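Hi team,

Filling in the usual template for the complex we talked about on Friday. All components are listed, including any nucleic acid strands or ligand strings, so the model treats them as one assembly.

SUBMITTER: L.P.
PURPOSE: interface mapping
COMPONENTS: three
RESIDUES: 1085
SEQUENCES:
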Amino acid sequence: MTATTASGITVRPLDVGAMVKEAGITALVIFALSAALVGFETTDIPGGIGINTRFDDVAVVVILGFVGRIALVLLRQHRPGPVLIGAPLMAVAMLLMLLAEPLFGPETAVAIAPFVPFQDPVVLWGLLIVTVIILVRAVLSRRHLDSEETAEAREVRMDSIAAQVQRAARFLGPLLLVLAVIFPFMPMANRQMLDIGILVITYIMLGWGLNIVVGLAGLLDLGYVAFYAVGAYSFALLATYFDYSFWICLPFAGLMAALAGVILGFPVLRLRGDYLAIVTLGFGEMIRVILLNWYEFTGGPDGLSGIPRPSFFGIAEFSRRSENSFHGMFGLEYSSLQRIIFLYYLILAMAMVVNLFTMRIRKLPISRAWEALREDETACRSLGINPRNTKLTAFGIGAMFAGFAGSFFATRQGFISPESFTFIESAVILAIVVLGGFGSQIGVVVAAALLIGLPEFFRELQQYRMLAFGMAMVLIMLWRPAGLLAHREPTIRLFGRGGRAEAES
Amino acid sequence: MSAQAAATGDMPQSPIPGGGVPIITVDHLTMRFGGLVAIDDVSFQAATGRITAIIGPNGAGKTTAFKAVTGQIKNHAGSVVLQGQSLDRLSTAARVRAGLALSHQIVRPFRDMTVLANVTLAGGSAKTAGPWSALFHRDRRPEEAKAVGILARLGIADAAQALPGSLPLGYLKRLEMARALALEPTVLLLDEPLAGLNHLEAAALADTIAAINREGTAIVLIEHNLGEVLRVCQRLVVLDAGRVIAEGAPDRVMAEAAVQQAYLGRREASHA
Amino acid sequence: MQDTFAYFLDQLINGLTLGSIYGLIAIGYTMVYGIIGMINFAHGEIFMIGSFVAIITFLLLGIAGVTWIPLALLIVLITSMVLTSIYGWALERVAYRPLRGSPRLAALITAIGMSIFLQNYVQLLQGARNKPMQPVISGGITVLQDQDYVVSLSYMQMMIIVVTLVLMTGFTLMIARTSLGRAQRACEQDRNMAALIGVNVDRTISLTFVVGAALASVAGMMFLMYYGVIDFFIGFLAGIKAFTAAVLGGIGSLPGAMLGGLLIGLIEAFWSGYFTVEYKDVAAFSILVLVLVFRPTGLLGKPDIEKV
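RESULT (copied from the run log):
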């Protein structure tokens, strides 16, 4: 019996056998995937490794896979009823397990502990989030029986959301900037908060820099951290060997990184996108291996230490005993926080330079050439655009900003070693750009705050950070390959800003 | 047109204009690309032992309709029923295994394989359906023998061992058809099989198509060569701007004013 | 010492052993690239998972008291191939299939995401430390003795080379003779057309991932037995080198992948033996860059066709 709802969606009779079969296959696959790696844990014992079993965890994930698949099948067939009952029950059960201690006291928590799956509560929290997402989908599908919207319709909807975010960014951006500027004087701004702030802004700056290469020019650079490293090492070497100050070394470091970008980019920028990505990855690793092994020059794995801290624009020093000290000059009490705050403003200013530069260059012809190159290289050649030089510009500019960020990193840490410049760093920066939506400035800020800031606050999440990065990259590509907040604004408008609304209506 | 569509929808087994029992029914097919409606509520049927020709000016949506029927593009509305089985939720490969075959207007041979290998592959493609048969099916002499027979029938047996890249278009068009035939379809969709052939070749191939049809395969044909179309086909469907404007026995359809104006009129005008 | 033939022979044996492992991984890269035109960046992780499944099975067999080595090896081989190929299948099904028809870079970013995910998944489940294992096969034969320099060929090395030869022969036959191989070639050339002649394209692609993962898992198992230690990160470098091998041989070409694997293994062994061990990775990366810049089709590759 086939019923058709008012909204025109056909609700077919439920084939229980097929549903159980589908869920059973899912459970079987999950069992095969988890049997070895989840079911057994290799542990260190004296003289080798031993093995622990975790069969209970395997059982739990298999059952959850089965139930979850049934829920998805029901949603797909527009029968949210059982999900609306089951999902809240499961969510409540999970919450009770997670919050047993604060709610019912430690005795209860100990008593139920054997029944709580997974050693780490973070896994359970993750499953709780998944359950809630399924529940939300069920509620939505109940409301308008329309969970199966077409890809086109979703794209249009997401694009309009992204457009709203971008419009909001015009007000949100300055607001965030003001917040960032007054942040060090807020009462909660202690040393730890400032350090996290500096870290997040460093990644925002790196994200914006990579955004020029990946977002605007469409060149996937998997070795971006190499230029970060070149900047950091150039700065450290110049500062320690020649004793130049931060303010002299900074432009040099940026230039060195840009030069490295141009030299490395020159031979490879004519390669097709995915090959280019792998080659840049190779370059990144090569530079790291060289830094690791060129002992006389770079200190090898020991790295370089004793990198001078920045002075107050060369006028004053941030030290307790100095002839022209910062606190002496401004008649303040000495505080070690002064240098941190200075570093904070320094990276904020540097990041804003990148941001302004990007906003500016977007309006220039070179940006339009990048955009065109992203779409069709052959067509660009026939328009007289030199693809290599155009790409090289993007590559060089991106590298330069990474170099600046690298110098900042070196002067802030006072110590650098090749360990800070692994592929994982490149992947993190790329994840920020991807998550933020290629080309979206505000998206990078949000993504950096989420990916860098959040795990800093919740240390328990630290070990799940990269797992979540990987998963987020996959989910975003599956959901919206253009990037979460990507929105195509026309570069040039025929009638100025007002014109588009008329054209749309 | 809507009255006719309703009639066929209600009584799918009734004889259709032009004779025969319908084997494939295309119902209210609609296909949009962005804002452009490429085919708009198109319905037609084809019958066992009959050749149905779809004609219409360029851009009328003929090839698009074929692509939607074979599932290469997803239609926005409408359904395709083959021998009482709905094809709507099936992949292209599954539709082909259910009995459809398509020969393209623009030839698409596998260029790294010989002509014979191309046809043999099609003959044995059902073996890729399951993982076990895909991995352990090795003997393909039956498929090869069948392929040789088809090549001979279409008159390209002499090129069996040649690579497609070295062959003239006339051969490739027939290879395209040979590959479709190797699937032993119940409904064969031919997209301009005669285009690019000279007069004699076209007439010979049209005869072969008619012979294949007499052996029981239902054939749906897109063709601009009206002379051959009117010689071999029993039913005509005329598309214009994505809509069916006429359907039925060829002589009756060709006499309709709308067809003359939309199809022939415009054509003559452009030739003049 | 470096100029003796014995030393050369020693490096040759090392290079062939290493190259066999790279070659087995490289086949997975090249097959996937051939059929859907994407770089399966997570393939190195599949290799790593294979080695972890192998070490767990070895440990369990030790507890179960299976001491007859051929039987133990067979059980580990089969377990590792089956469980790892399910990872390969799931990877394609979950992460890549929905992206079919998307731009190359979207697929590549997904693959990088999966690679990061799988690495950390194994790290979380199995810990970040090295996992050492006692040698399962020991001993060997002396090939050559030059004064006090002994060149020996261990049974382990022999096994690696023989297993690789057997697998590659079987695999080549499979591609040449079975329906899967023919369907793969059809999909490589024209996926839509292949579907139109009834080839189940999705299943063919799935099977490609399964076969690639099975071969990588054998490589993982042999890596574990040869080096005696693994960790969650081995997939990254091995993956890049195997990809380099696939590019060097001509991506999309199966004999190319095998040849490239052997060459990369030999280059690495000789570079380490005659120049410096430290820069052996730089040598591999330089080859990758040089091949891509000067001969993107590799040694045995065909000219590039646009896909995806």
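MY TAKE: The beta strands of chain B are 22-33, 36-47, 51-55, 77-82, 85-86, 100-103, 187-191, 218-222, 235-240, 243-248. Chains B and A do not touch (no CB pair under 8 Å).

Thanks, L.
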